[in-house]
Amino acid sequence: MISTANGKRAVIIGRSNIVGKPMLHLLMARHATVTVCHSHTKNLPDITREADILVAAMGKPKFVTADMIKPGATVIDVGINRIAPKKLVGDVDFDAAVEVAGAITPVPGGVGLLTVAMLMKNVVKAVKLQLS
């Protein structure tokens, strides 16, 4: 998790129970000021350009463009979108965003593996609880 969120401005695009809301609580617990948005938020690019930490989790391929990112921001792309039989992309236009962001997670190869690992951890925990 982000250890340097203290005092940072974080923006999460996506309000799901799977990613958006848990990220809100994780970032707040690390003393970030957090704004939760979605694809219908008015003036969304203005809001995202203020973010030191930008989390994209709305499920729209390449929705976040480079002009929506504050130079030097940390961009965490949680989206997984199939746009062709063997082509996965995130919610962030990675090729353009990598030129602006200070750090960025790729898709595929970014946080997806952690999602699977945490799912497996939770499945094992659930089985243990059922057996006890």
Summary?
The chain is an alpha/beta fold and about 130 residues long.
Topology readout:
Elements: E1 9-13, H1 20-29, E2 33-37, H2 44-48, E3 53-56, E4 74-77, E5 81-84, E6 87-89, H3 94-97, E7 103-104, H4 112-131
Parallel strand pairs: 1-2, 1-3, 3-4, 4-7
Antiparallel strand pairs: 5-6
Structure description:
The structure is a single chain. The radius of gyration is 15 Å and the shape is globular. The strands form 2 sheets. It has a 5-stranded parallel beta sheet. The chain is of the alpha/beta class. The model has no long low-confidence stretch (mean pLDDT 88). It is 30% helix and 20% strand. It starts with 8 loop residues before the first strand and ends with a helix. It contains 4 helices and 7 strands; from the N terminus they run βαβαββββαβα. The longest helix is centred in the last third of the chain and has 20 residues, at 112-131. Strand 5 (81-84) and strand 6 form a beta hairpin.
